[in-house]
Fold these 2 entries.
Entry 1:
Amino acid sequence: MSVGYNVAVVGATGAVGEEMLKILAQRDFPVKNLRAIASERSEGKVVEFKEEKIKVENLASASFKNVDIALFSAGASVSREFSPKFASEGAVVVDNSSAFRMDRDVPLVVPEVNPHAVEKHKGIIANPNCSTIQLVVAINPIHKRAKIKRMVISTFQSVSGTGRDAIIELKEQTKNYLEKRPLEKKVYPHQIAFNLLPHIGKFLPSGYTEEEMKLVNETRKIMEDPAIKVTATCVRVPVFISHSETVTIETEIFLSVDEVREILSRAEGVILQDDPQNNIYPLPVEAAGKDEVFVGRIRKDESAPNSINMWVVSDNLRKGAALNTIQIAELLIKKGLV
Amino acid sequence: MSVGYNVAVVGATGAVGEEMLKILAQRDFPVKNLRAIASERSEGKVVEFKEEKIKVENLASASFKNVDIALFSAGASVSREFSPKFASEGAVVVDNSSAFRMDRDVPLVVPEVNPHAVEKHKGIIANPNCSTIQLVVAINPIHKRAKIKRMVISTFQSVSGTGRDAIIELKEQTKNYLEKRPLEKKVYPHQIAFNLLPHIGKFLPSGYTEEEMKLVNETRKIMEDPAIKVTATCVRVPVFISHSETVTIETEIFLSVDEVREILSRAEGVILQDDPQNNIYPLPVEAAGKDEVFVGRIRKDESAPNSINMWVVSDNLRKGAALNTIQIAELLIKKGLV
């Protein structure tokens, strides 16, 4: 018997699904059999995994049986309908949608932060939102040392977070703008080329967007501290890959800038890039394609006691989505939970 | 005698200088004679003012005499050398550089906020930095009603703030990126196309940039309140025109979101754009070419008492530079100070 797992990637033709296939191969994930599943629209398409060509199955008619690990990235409504079906046939589902994240019975996991949480899974484990993952990887080591009381966050989020159509829209609009042709808007309500949209996800009655509230609620759940106060403004920027965040962190205990640097230089999954005099600080184009969360521009915030400013950048398709999902699956294997 | 003033625009061929000529014409500024002055490089070039073509003079050899109002936008070192020369010959200089902004003897003026300050001028009046102007126009009405204690600011600043070369660099890099050709970097230390640079102005030993400290220091001077606490992160974004800012404002006195909306709806120079359910919020591409400061996304910040979040956008070349400079000149005329 070959060592390995039967893995299904659901949403295999999307921006995150494609990244999942790449990362499974790169990390030599112990795959016995790989199935690529997507919506009817993608049926018959072919995706690549290692040297192999895999025919994409239609989710509506696909079998849920004989899957050990199902990696979902197909949107919340698809997950809500199909994740339980795979789980009830014995698969462990790691779901990248928002469907189950705040469900009390579903662990919400970032392996660097709360690996123990996977142990309580009942068939489904949720992968947090992209902007939350990179945030908690960067701040958890600070929280452990100095207890975070409050954070003020502004995000600069790339279009790949919206999906493949948004990548195309940014490219097309940019080209048309430069050639002085009219711009077409299909994905976003306003032009995204050379513009900024302070609008990610639906608006709630409070005036916040769903995306902004994910940063508040998911952070508290993952860090298992409902007392952490978070306020956020999420902005879509004309960048293809990587989300960036300004984070102002107020802690219970004072930390010097040097201490923060020292903590982050040893933190799992973090790369410190903080040498501004030599123009070294995290950049979205450099973080793209990398696994880590990059932190720089660490400064004492003189406007409040025990407060620190920093700049956090990470590839939203990798650590923000596909990579974290696969790291959760690896954790399940390591702990013998699958 | 025709009613009007002898006006010199110094830096007339730059991005801001060009905007000044446009705005002087649009507002029918009482110009008797207009001189366009720039560096040697631009000597002999021709600029347009109303229907007239004006030959650009070389600053190094230009006369300083017979000028009533000199509008400077040619960088700090040029201002430091030449502003006093124009002033000593009787001109009132309104200077858009950072040279004199924090000088105790030089008023730093935003007409909507501290118009009285012009009265103390000794020949030179400073125009604040672009990101400061739009901030104080938006927050001063709130400060007057509820006293601002602290602000946390992140900026999303367009390349036109750097100047004409940066506009060209963004265009060229974008074109080359889309055509998969190598990118040339001349203005910025890193790629700006489809990227973000958390780096505006020089880095200081504290880790802050000069741009970030302008928001701290200029805000206090203009609002005449050294107790206001400000912390900022300034980020360059691939947008041509308009700066955008997320602003978290903590006040002494509680204000509801409705009260803030009501205050801003009546504020001079502000346009409230805050109907997120209908996708109405300030956008850089829509603010470009407009005179006002646009404010939206007003929300209660639940992470601190008496705290409000908002999103502030304005054309950095107009209100952030050329327009405010000319409004100062108009104020001087109105008050009989020129």
Entry 2:
Amino acid sequence: MPTNGGGAGGTPDLLPVAEARSRILAGLTPGAAETSPLAEAIGRVLAADLAARLSLPADPVSAMDGYAARSEDCAAAGSSLTRIGESAAGRPWTGVIGPGEAVRIFTGAVVPDGADCIILQEDVEASSEEDGAIVSIREVPQKGRFIRPEGLDVTAGDIILAEGTMMSARLIALATSAGHVTASFYPRPHIGILSTGDELVSPGDTPARGQIVSSNATYLSAFVSACGGVPVELGIARDRPGAMLDALRAAPVPLDLVVTTGGASVGTHDHVVDDLSSTGTELGFWKIAMRPGKPLIHGRVDGIPLLGLPGNPVSSAVCANIFLRPAIARLSGSDHAPEMIAARLATGLPENDRRQDYLRATLSHDDDGLPQATPARQQDSSMIGVYANANALIVRPPFDPPKSAGDMVMVLRLDPLL
Amino acid sequence: MPTNGGGAGGTPDLLPVAEARSRILAGLTPGAAETSPLAEAIGRVLAADLAARLSLPADPVSAMDGYAARSEDCAAAGSSLTRIGESAAGRPWTGVIGPGEAVRIFTGAVVPDGADCIILQEDVEASSEEDGAIVSIREVPQKGRFIRPEGLDVTAGDIILAEGTMMSARLIALATSAGHVTASFYPRPHIGILSTGDELVSPGDTPARGQIVSSNATYLSAFVSACGGVPVELGIARDRPGAMLDALRAAPVPLDLVVTTGGASVGTHDHVVDDLSSTGTELGFWKIAMRPGKPLIHGRVDGIPLLGLPGNPVSSAVCANIFLRPAIARLSGSDHAPEMIAARLATGLPENDRRQDYLRATLSHDDDGLPQATPARQQDSSMIGVYANANALIVRPPFDPPKSAGDMVMVLRLDPLL
């Protein structure tokens, strides 16, 4: 039996956005960990803590160009040392520095055994740049200064990255420097994408009167990829009994989540209810307290979590940002919280009703350099052109009082790639 | 002859960061346009304006559920009409509405010819949901209201996306809805990545004393991919004459830019000068007024633009954000301006010297919800662990006076993937 999302009363309540999101996420878990190359790990999430295999630096190294020596030999300005070798990055001097001896050293080079100070090159007078040169100290060095001790940055064995960390290029660099080539990651989730509706034609086909080009699948496919998932396009299911189930079951790979668009409108609703209910699992047709966003379908089909977005491209896109993006993050082993910022309204807004409103807007900066949000003049949810050219959504809570130009509102930035 | 970046005086001046960036970008242009599928276009840049092939909507459509009729037949409450058909999304009613007739209509469905108003379903009493039903009007409809005219969102022939636009999922949806399957894009630039230095071992190999694992190429490869380029790894060139040129010339594909790391330090500097100067083109060893960031190499090798970053992983990563990211954008046909935000300092900072400083920092929110920047306690540019765990860089201009906790600073957010 389909269930409504709301309260226990006769008229189903509207389900708050946050509650809907919590319920969607509650049913999702990442797949089994797999070992993968760090070089291909950008955006992926660690499935286990990662410990450093190497210390950084692995040996004490010089932070400056100069001479390595024993501090007891450099206690007075005017002392002289004999240069006995050179230590450069990648070409360490491998002996032990004895009394009265110094080794020429460069930034990043290993400090030779026996040395405990670095004399800056500008603080000496050297008779030549050859071994055997006499090096006179003009400025007494400080013991340990300009020496980066072993493990200053990272110590072998220490946990450098925690389970659940999403890999950036710089974290990949850290793991690589610490001796790793691969790591244990959660798999990228496979997200099935299925459009429904007789009014749709595939991109490239010419729509007859009353038909429209299906853009939701193309949108969601790009969206899923940019969020780190693997999109699996399942085509367009027509408005006939069984079409949706047939398409879902024809998926070429096991799916972690199925996203459908449409199927909750007059005429198609019944097929979807019948199709999905026939799989014997509980299915919710939620009326969410948000605009745009028609009833959201939620449940499982053949054990696979299903999220049914509205067929309207703008509603579908807004719901993808609010519900699908955190769902993909959860399936990938991480969390996604939408990033909200405060901005000044460029124009006033009327009182809001009981639905959380997501107004298409342009986020810019006012003359003082502060964030300013300008709502699009037309908020018709049929207008994909308006949505596509927005870079933010003004989020108005239910029953938000009227706002004037200059009032503060909360704004959800749309990711430049989404 | 190598040239210094600075002024005309005897001692070369430090080159300001913005000036260095301008000079780097000036030599870069995108490749020849190519036609590619929109479905794979996320992050790509349009090489030509894109005009809509279809209007959206293509016909007048209803914005509500109700009945389509002629407004002259609905001038008074109590008027009756005869239902003669149904128009649903994807299943338009194709006749012409005559006097006294109405067509049942649903949101998104084509408004039949002859009709000029929509009577909301809650504003009528209908004798049945079958054709032939008598529909009594309780509330007089307004002519044109709830009808989305043809082209409301997009008009066929209009430019919907301009040359230079970077494609997001939502812009892909717009172009798809407007009838496109492909578009003209600038190619993704191929970026050669070459590390130099005897101190480097490849990831997976065990460093001997004084050696380190090469992480720059892994970092830059992930960085280039995330910025929309195609990384071409050229390996590690050792510190011997000709090694760098040999590696560059062994590139398996034509390159749009070569990025090297290292090669400007003592011992290796001379080979690089000799190697690159032998190609007969002007080469700059710039001392940039920034920290971290040692001399930057800039020029062309065999006609290919070359950007030589420092070998130090932190310096290399900072320079990649400041110079390489806009360079990849320019080669891709777009622009990238680093996103700077103002934040309060959590701790004080001493006066800055003549170099623009990029301090590794954590950007968070203070108790008032305002951005707060906490500089890492250790700013040693050898510490990749500190850099990898930062999420922002505090940018301090040359000669910035001392700052106290609570003072405002400008902060460059590090992209979560970079």
